[in-house]
Write a sequence for this structure.
């Protein structure tokens, strides 16, 4: 793996998100900056650090009362800040897509899997029903689902957790977007299934030259899977570094996160507790 090369796919400058609450404005994302190329960019941090909110803001999924501002959000140079609803429909799925954390809440429970994938393809590619069916079948094969013809006719509740996540990946990638945002896409899976899903994402990103934003709280997964890492706290990016250098991070918050994770190679009687400094948000 290497750091970003070539022209950027996505440019984000001074992205901020806030919500009104109890008569005041609460910031959820504070001045986030990054550039995404054809790479795997990890975003890590505790729950509430602004990781998922950042991903949703990039796809224009935060409606009122959220207030989203940015100096620049550009996809291949196209300004995304003031897109109309129809403009966002042209972007979502076909150029940028997002895998949510739990397929049970993302898949339509009363629609067969094959129809959902085919519908996503037809929405963005204006194809015939037959072609969409073939593409759905091809995508299930691409994410290594056995007997894809049978799975096409299943309902979401008939899928295991790992299979449901693979179906979600297939549905998000069927229109061949340039950027994929994976929000805790493997957190609910056991280790063997998690590794299999990560291998699928790795292969598809490499083969298609996509950009991947991998949102996670699992530092071990991010350090081994991603190219670069953004470390977020309180809505702010505190540190950006190559994933291979995560163990030698310099910011005290990143060091504290690493110290709070159990290490079988170096067992400790007591894990560290993250000590927060208000100056980090100054």
């Amino acid at each position: 793996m290497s750091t970003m090369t070539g022209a950027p796919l996505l440019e984000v400058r001074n992205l901020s998100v806030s919500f009104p609450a109890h008569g005041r404005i609460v910031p959820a994302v504070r001045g986030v900056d990054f550039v995404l190329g054809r790479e795997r960019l990890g975003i890590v941090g505790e729950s509430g650090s602004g990781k998922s909110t950042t991903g949703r803001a990039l796809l224009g999924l935060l409606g009122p009362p959220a207030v989203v501002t940015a100096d620049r959000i550009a996809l291949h140079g196209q300004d995304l800040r003031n897109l109309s609803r129809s403009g966002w429909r042209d972007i979502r799925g076909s150029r940028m897509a997002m895998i949510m954390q739990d397929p049970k809440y993302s898949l339509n429970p009363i629609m067969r899997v094959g129809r959902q994938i085919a519908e996503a393809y037809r929405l963005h590619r204006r194809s015939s029903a037959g072609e969409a069916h073939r593409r759905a079948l091809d995508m299930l094969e691409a994410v290594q689902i056995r007997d894809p013809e049978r799975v096409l006719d299943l309902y979401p509740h008939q899928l295991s957790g790992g299979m449901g996540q693979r179906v979600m990946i297939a549905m998000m990638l069927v229109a061949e977007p340039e950027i994929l945002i994976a929000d805790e896409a493997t957190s609910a899976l056991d280790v063997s299934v998690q590794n299999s899903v990560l291998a699928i994402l790795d292969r598809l990103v490499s083969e298609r030259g996509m950009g991947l934003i991998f949102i996670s709280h699992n530092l071990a997964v991010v350090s081994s899977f991603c190219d670069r890492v953004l470390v977020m706290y309180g809505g702010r990016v505190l540190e950006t570094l190559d994933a291979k250098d995560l163990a030698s991070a310099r910011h005290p918050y990143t060091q504290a996160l690493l110290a709070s994770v159990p290490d079988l190679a170096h067992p400790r009687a007591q894990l560290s507790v993250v000590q927060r400094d208000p100056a980090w948000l100054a």
In short: The chain has a mean pLDDT of 89. The chain has two domains: 10-95+179-281, 105-176.
